[in-house]
Design brief:
Structural class: alpha/beta
Radius of gyration: 19 Å
Shape: globular
Strand order of the largest sheet: 9-8-7-10-11-13-12
Mean pLDDT: 90
Largest sheet: 7 strands, mixed
Distance between the termini: 47 Å
Length: about 300
Amino acid sequence: MLTCADGFSFAENGDPEEVHYYKVDGVLFSGKTNFQNMMILDTERFGKLLVLDGRVQSAQNDEHIYHESLVHPALITHPNPRNVLIIGGGEGATLREALRHPSVNYVAMIDIDGEVVDNCRRMLPEWSQGAFDDQRSELFITDGKDFVANTATKFDCVIIDICDALEDGPAIELYSGKFYNDVKRLLNPGGIVVVQAMEFSNLVNKDHVFVHMSLRQIFQNVRSYAQYVPSFWCNWSFVIASDVHEPETLKCDEINRRMRLRGLDSALVHYDGDTHAHMFSLPKANRRVLDQACMETLQRNVA
């Protein structure tokens, strides 16, 4: 909601027990698409702010933290990523980061809401930086679930960058074991999946644990990692899954070597070998939450 209680500010709709306010200099766009409510705000601290259904999706001044954290651990881990599938990512920044890897020759981006994509291309060009016009990219405005179920194209990496798992949101069916099974069918041998997996702390973890455990039923190697994003006011999490690769075992020097070979070391603002190690070093409380979930699942399976 927008409020003038203390100047002109925006209160994010989220946990009713926790409200975040952003001081707003102006409303650049406000409207309803066929799928969700959309706002683009100009804020004092974070620059432009994309808000869908009352929830902040990304902010101009720190979106690089989120998008580099989502994309590069998976693509750096893969020795030669060529075909990449992005589910969601309407701003175009996930596409931008995937295209930085010189080995990538094709990226399919799937988003259900063409109006969000069009408005982002027009009003948030700082996010995509021309990525939609790159000849290696192809945009499909369709349901990600339907695309994954029907395409015959194979991919080296699948990046799932969709909205949070709201009960009435457009992305809810993309948080399911069936969907992740369909995604796995699209992977080339040695392929990797990475999913944005919402807030993850010892207090707020239900959605993250659900994503982690769903992927654990399907892939051999599943790891959670997290990074603090200032405009989100919390540690935002991701889950990476593969039957072959173990990204948390990569040493800092090896990651930096791969980045130099791919010309990424000077191109990225946030991600490098040290950042990679930090993101995969979860606090003890977070590890305990995942260990407990694994133990409960094992006990149910035995019973």
